[in-house]
Amino acid sequence: MGKYRNILLVSGGQRNVGKTTFICQVIPSVKESGVTAVKITPHFHEVTPGLQPIAESESWCLFKETNTSQEKDTSLYLQAGAKNSFFLQTKKEYIHEAFLELYKYLPNEIPVIIESAGLVDLIKPGLFVVILPDGKCLKKEIENKLMVADLIVISDGKKFYPEPARVVFENGWTLKTRL
């Protein structure tokens, strides 16, 4: 398992917990560095306008997002100030192979933010954030992620505690102790 200091990995306790909103609130604080944002999903969706295929196999597809006017996560990353945005669709059992291909397109020294539920089993990011729903029961499978999380955030989908401003990039991702 490699260590990737420049990768902020964001996962969640369920759908619609605010992962993308959290990321879009972090991006402006690092956009001067040329931040790259990535969405990884185990679900295959119809390709929408603006997604340019850059690599694929029978088990995964990697796209670069170019459309800044949609409400898709990858488009929202660009709207928030990301320099580059990628979308990776992969079957769960091929996430390692797909990540190795994605990694060829990621910068080494500048901030990268990845939204993914499964990647934490393969890499050690600079910072791993898990976003949990406020006041709701969680799926049992999130328990292992909580054990390795650097930060657990409680969210109603729009507001976060602690705030995204706690997450900073200083030669790698870290947490501010005070705002």
What is the CATH class name?
Alpha Beta
List the strand order in the largest sheet: 3-4-5-2-6-1-7-8-9
Quote the CATH topology: Rossmann fold
CATH architecture group name? 3-Layer(aba) Sandwich
- SSE arrangement, N to C: EHEEEHEHEEHEEEE
Radius of gyration: 15 Å
Profile the largest sheet. Answer: 9 strands, mixed
Give the low-confidence spans.
none
Strand runs, count:
11
Structural class: alpha/beta
Average of per-residue pLDDT values = 90
Morphology: globular
Helical run tally: 4
- Please indicate the count of domains: 1
Helix percent reads 10-25%
Percent of sequence in beta strands: 25-35%
Distance from N terminus to C terminus (CA atoms, Å) equals 32 Å
Offer a few descriptive terms.
single chain, 179 residues, alpha/beta, nine-stranded mixed sheet, two-stranded antiparallel ribbon, 11 strands
Q: Can you walk through the features of this model?
A:
- The protein is an alpha/beta fold.
- The chain has four helices and eleven strands.
- The strands form two sheets. The chain has a nine-stranded mixed beta sheet, with helices on both faces. A two-stranded antiparallel sheet has the order 10-11.
- A hairpin with a 3-residue loop joins strand 10 (167-169) and strand 11 (173-175).
- The chain is globular and about 40 Å long.
- The chain starts with a strand and ends with a strand.
